[in-house]
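Quick illustration for those who missed Monday's session on complexes.
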Amino acid sequence: MDKTRHDSLGLEHTSSCNAWSLTISALESSVADHLQCPRSIPARLPSPSFQPPYPGFSVRFPQDVSQLVIAIVGSQHRPSVSPTSVAVSTSHAAISSFLASTRPSTPPSFVEWASVTDNRGYYNLCALAYWDGKSSYESWASSSGFKAWWDGLDADADSQDDDLDQGPGWFLEILSPTTDRFETLFNTDSAREGSSHFAGACMSSAVQEHGYWGSMRDRIPLSQTDVLSANNTRLPSPSQLTDSNADHRKKRITIPRHRNLAIIRSGQDWSTTTPEERKLYLQTMHPILQKGMDFLQNHGKEEVGCYSCRFMHVLDSETEKTDRTFGLAYFDELASLERWSKEHETHLAIFGGFFRYAQQLGNNVTLRVFHEVMVLEEGQQFFEYVGCHGDTGMLASRG
Ligand code: HEM
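Prediction with protoporphyrin IX containing FE bound:
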């Protein structure tokens, strides 16, 4: 007879769900040895001998990597501009020319292109570029000519204003967490995403800190000694434009820095699934996920502390969509992200849907999911927008 039990995520299992009760003998901590320290803040781990009900893995960086940089560089095109237009292609070429430049000695370790049409109908195209150190990023930005190009963009000339030029808006979002403010979780150790492309990076063995609410926090090394709260303190950026009543579409706007801003990039890859699983994913999971991302985009700020959410499609050429997506969301603090994932019906639907999906596949899931989460202090973030509409990225955090 099946025995019903509830695990740390509140999921109901029966003893016939064999794959969920597999024993993982050699669990390691998601927090790398050199980042472990005596805790002044208790972990959320249910018990020291806790065994997650399914395996999860984290990226390990070489010890000399203490900070990473993720630069999100994009163009924004008004609804009348087709994603396949010359205008979009020209923007892609402009950004690519810096990322692919052979001049810099420190090119990005990894670049990925992605796009989304936002809730105002604007097409946003961007590159996500990763460096394994801030000095590498800075050296690339100046030697490739990117910095000079970015600083020289003319907000008026490139405005989205209907009466002016038809040029795109531009955005630059630089996330540079130290490794003690960064965590990853993958459902497989064979996938490579984002920061796992760094030279010398590898995947951990199965980690202990997952499979319970609060495990994301436990995986962030600094949470051992810091509650990572925002306290709602916003510090002005050196070049901040304070005229919030002005038409942002004609402006270059630098966003005030937020204490302990929490960012998640949560990815899904169904490119290697069987035809049966692919169909199931697209018919069941993808719509629920879209609904959750729509909620965060349209109501996140007022209801759950999410300033911005883009549900992006990864591209393999200028416009060609792959079988990979990710949600990129900016929350006012980690506690808000935790609350949304644990309590809000939209993530609970995604989460519950996933376990039903797994059950339908007899727990033989080949869908790959991962996330990268970071909590940024003031000096580890830079958000600047040139001629973008007012709901773009962190522009939405104003007012
Ligand atoms: C198909 C898509 C998704 C699936 C299947 C999924 C499923 C899950 C699962 C199974 C967990 C528990 C992981 C563990 O600890 O072992 C989890 C945690 C979490 N998910 Fe999702 N999720 C998806 C998309 C997203 C997206 C797009 C976001 C945010 C933009 C998100 C935010 C979170 C957060 C923050 C946690 C950690 C909660 C904590 O440990 O406190 N998820 N999700």
